[in-house]
From TrEMBL:
This is NADP-dependent oxidoreductase domain-containing protein. InterPro entries: AKR, Aldo/ket_reductase_CS, NAD(P)_OxRdtase_dom_sf, NADP_OxRdtase_dom. It comes from the Eukaryota. Keywords: Oxidoreductase. Residues 28-273 form the NADP-dependent oxidoreductase domain. Belongs to the aldo/keto reductase family. GO terms for molecular function: oxidoreductase activity. It holds the Pfam family Aldo_ket_red. The record marks K80 as: Lowers pKa of active site Tyr.
Length: 291
């Protein structure tokens, strides 16, 4: 069946830049294996890599960008300011931007996210201001947040309005990154982002392998002649999300990018989604504003 997407599909961000709709995650990819995994991904067509300072493998991603022979402008590279940076507010986030650029050996990042909303309101506002300055200085192309609950997002909109009044530019949110899969669908977050044209990225999109063998998943895999991972990733794409599957295994890296020769029906999509709230990763969304 014809499919709406292909591996080159992109989403136009509020920053004006385009983000590839399929990403390649490197959380828990060992630093010494990161270049190899990323080169494998680039070889089979991924053009979007999701790292973070906390993963300690930004250097390996940078090496892969250079070794691939693909123009830098064609690869979308994300990093994240770690929890300690966000808690440290403006100064710590400024320092982290420099550190990430230096570690990866690049002169700009396509996307920098605040990894989690810890640190309290003043620290979050300072961290965001540092990202806005990073964009103004040409070091960051797009900026966003990860793991912010709706209460943190509402607060961020307030901070953006305040910064606009204080300094003329409060910045724009281009991306939100969240654990999303059929056992943690987060439709409130998806709606909040959709209303503002914010790209919603899905981490742990194959649930870190925790749901293999699920009855509905197996049934849909058999129906479409696809693997369970491919069904979950296709679900994510059809929800309008930007899935970020991680693998260090060449056959899986390839498999996770072969999502475009089939389509889930409306009924398949609904049957797969559950009302469960069962994240497999951490869950900073629930933290209080003063945390
Ligand atoms: N912002 C955040 O707080 C946050 C948190 C978590 C993750 N993330 C991002 O999202 C990315 C993905 O999330 P994740 O790493 O937690 O989980 P994931 O992608 O759902 O799962 C990765 C695990 O599934 C295995 N796997 C991948 N494809 C498979 C396939 N086709 N068949 C069987 N097993 C498969 C991988 O094994 P092998 O590697 O051994 O092949 C690995 O153990 C991360 O790498 C990171 O970039 C962000």
């Amino acid at each position: 069946m014809a499919s709406t997407y292909n591996i080159n599909s992109t989403f136009k961000l509020n920053s004006g830049y385009e983000i590839p709709r399929l990403g390649f995650g490197v959380y828990q990819t060992p630093p010494e294996g990161t270049q190899k995994a990323c080169l494998e991904a680039l070889k089979v067509g991924y053009r979007h890599i999701d790292s973070a300072a906390a993963y300690r493998n930004e250097a390996g991603v940078g090496e892969a960008l250079r070794a691939s022979g693909i123009p830098r402008s064609e690869i979308f590279f994300t990093s994240k300011v770690p929890t300690s940076g966000v808690k440290g507010g403006y100064e710590a986030t400024k320092a982290q931007i420099e550190k990430s650029l230096k570690t990866a050996g690049v002169d700009y990042l396509d996307l920098m996210l605040l990894h989690a909303p810890y640190g309290g309101s003043a620290a979050r506002k300072g961290a965001w201001k540092a990202l806005v300055e990073g964009v103004e200085e040409g070091k960051l192309r797009s900026i966003g947040i990860s793991n912010y609950g709706v209460h943190h997002l509402d607060e961020l909109e307030q901070h953006i309005a305040e910064l606009k009044a204080e300094r003329g530019n409060g910045g724009v949110i281009s991306v939100g990154q969240y654990e999303i899969h059929p056992w943690c669908a987060r439709n409130d977050i998806i709606d909040w982002c959709a209303k503002r044209n914010i790209a919603c990225e899905a981490y742990s999109p194959v649930v870190q392998g925790a749901r293999w063998g699920d009855k509905t998943l197996v049934k849909l895999a058999e129906k479409h002649g696809k693997t369970e991972a491919q069904i979950l990733l296709r679900w994510s794409l059809q929800k309008g999300l930007v899935p970020l599957p991680k693998s260090v295994t060449p056959s899986r890296i390839k498999e996770n990018a072969e999502l475009y020769e089939f389509e889930l029906s409306k009924e398949d999509m609904a049957e797969l989604e559950t009302n469960e709230y069962a994240p497999v990763c951490w869950d900073p969304l629930k933290s209080e504003l003063d945390n």
